[in-house]
Amino acid sequence: MNKYLLSLALLLSSSTLIPYPVVAQYSGLGKNSVDPTVLQRYAPKPLAPSVTQNIEQMLDVRSPGLGIVTPDGKRMFFTWSITGTVQVWRLDGAQQFPVQMTGGQDATRIASMTPDGKYLLLSRDRQGEENPGLYLQPTDGGQLEVIQHKPKVRTSLQYISDDSRTIYFSANDIAPDSFAIYRYDLQTKKKILIFAEKGIWSIADIWGDRQKFLFSKATGNIFSEYYEFDKKTQKLKPILGQNEQEEYTIQYSASPDEYLVLTPKFGEFRRLYRYKNSKFTPITPEIKADVSNFDIDYQRLRILYSINDGGYSRLKAIDTRTFQEITLPEFANADHVIAGITTRNGRYTSLGVETSTAPRLSYVYDWQTNKLTQWVLPSAPEIDTRQFVVAKLESYPARDGTPIPTFVYRPPQCQQAKAIPCPVVVNFHGGPEGQSIPGFNRFAQLFVQSGFIFVEPNVRGSNGYGKSWLNADNASDRTKVITDIEDAALYIRKNWQVNGKVPKIGIMGGSYGGYSALIGMSKFAGSYDAGVSVVGISNILTFLNNTAPYRRILRITEYGDPERDREALIALSPITYIDRIKSPLLIIQGANDPRVPVGEALQIQTLLENKKVPSQLVIFPDEGHGTGKRSNQVLEIGYALDFFSKHLKSE
């Protein structure tokens, strides 16, 4: 038995709670941490065309990325997954035939463009490792030039100088849990280390052309400290966030002694402020909704910000001199209007517009002429997306009476009189600070087409409902609200019956949603009839011990400290309740996952096999935290749909 075939040292009767299992715990992460024979054993098998055909057709319905426009407005570069992997494409005019710029099996994305419009800075990742490298490519096309791509190192572009010669990037190549800042000359190809203090550092903003640097140091998953960095003295001047556990996002305003600060510090919801002389002045209205993000263009002319209105995105603009609202184009019936990148000269901004029944449309807005032009055309071959089911915002009560907002997709046949109830799949989002939102959702539509009612709750801990809701599940407080997961099933069983018959209910999710599926099937065993966990945590302690070092620092603020909160983490780990699992469970994992190590899936699957619980593990050897390749996406979705069809549709 190899180190991944774990054995329990203590197994009590099914009526008692297993204390933290003393097992031969795994260590490490990534494909190299797993015996090749184990990968071969759990590798995905092909599925029948009857299972995959509809999925392949649905995945052909897609929108390219929003894109970035050249300074003269004549070209656009964008990402598109039409080849099966995300690659970079070019348009030589609005709605022209796209030209493919990059290729291969490794996902490649646009990091930025040089101000002169001559070069692209690209980010390329290998097989889902999330250790991308930084590359340079002429905008006319051609071979990629490596700036830096090292094994087990994340390299991220931070800034490009006005003269298009110098770039700054961050990388954790000195220590795996710290990010240093480098300057790189695109002509001489020389790299110079400019900052290497311990911490997870990035460049939040730069005033002028390298006159003043605003540095961010992440101290938690949503917490950061901000400093001004003096290039000459190499000293840091504290600005905000020091000795606080508060959420801030900061950029320079229209003057170098004033900042724009997004924070929920002074109320329940995030609001945008001017910060000068240690004084905060609000510049967005006080409303019961979050300002979810903002950006100021390089010329410091306009601020674009987005409001999270119960899961719907509303775009607003402000003049930086008067702080008065600027009128934007209106888009009727849009679920989401999203701002992309504004050109360095401040003239063009890419916009994305999404509804529930059409793939996202991409536009370019010319601030000088106030002209809106659609550039990229989405594709929907052989599918009439106008027939897609629109999500309905509902809620269910938690056991303490708190209403949990929930988006529900009901197939037409399930809204009609039936003899038996339709099966239900409850899908929990990742994060945990994520948010399920309405809009164009191919994944939900596949379940709807297969006859499932598809449910997406935003349990406590989700983003978009104020800071009390967001922080309700931090560390040991998670024990107080984790029951929101069980309460969804309890409500459905009681209220969605047909002719006295209770619907069969499945639970699924990815990342933290995968953890939610595992906890729903273990701690709350019996509430769900089948479960699918995708890249989910089975043991929070082993997860924190083995996840990527820089991520461990960020996740402790969310999940809790392995020493201080040890008992709570044991009580919150699905593997603690392994003896309760009786219903069928499917586990899907990427071998290269740097967030949730593959050992999380292997350790619980081994225990389930020992107990002879009906379970299945699928490991993609060439994927990380979720599937990126189209062929693997088809299999991942296919396995889930086939699994639920077998276990939820049988009489």
Automatic annotation (TrEMBL):
<dbReference type="Pfam" id="PF07676">
    <property type="entry name" value="PD40"/>
</dbReference>
<dbReference type="InterPro" id="IPR029058">
    <property type="entry name" value="AB_hydrolase_fold"/>
</dbReference>
<dbReference type="Pfam" id="PF00326">
    <property type="entry name" value="Peptidase_S9"/>
</dbReference>
<dbReference type="InterPro" id="IPR001375">
    <property type="entry name" value="Peptidase_S9_cat"/>
</dbReference>
<keyword id="KW-0732">Signal</keyword>
<keyword id="KW-0645">Protease</keyword>
<feature type="signal peptide">
    <location>
        <begin position="1"/>
        <end position="24"/>
    </location>
</feature>
<protein>
    <recommendedName>
        <fullName>Peptidase S9 prolyl oligopeptidase catalytic domain-containing protein</fullName>
    </recommendedName>
</protein>
<feature type="domain" description="Peptidase S9 prolyl oligopeptidase catalytic">
    <location>
        <begin position="440"/>
        <end position="650"/>
    </location>
</feature>
<dbReference type="GO" id="GO:0006508">
    <property type="term" value="P:proteolysis"/>
</dbReference>
<dbReference type="InterPro" id="IPR011042">
    <property type="entry name" value="6-blade_b-propeller_TolB-like"/>
</dbReference>
<dbReference type="GO" id="GO:0004252">
    <property type="term" value="F:serine-type endopeptidase activity"/>
</dbReference>
<keyword id="KW-0378">Hydrolase</keyword>
<keyword id="KW-0720">Serine protease</keyword>
<dbReference type="InterPro" id="IPR011659">
    <property type="entry name" value="WD40"/>
</dbReference>
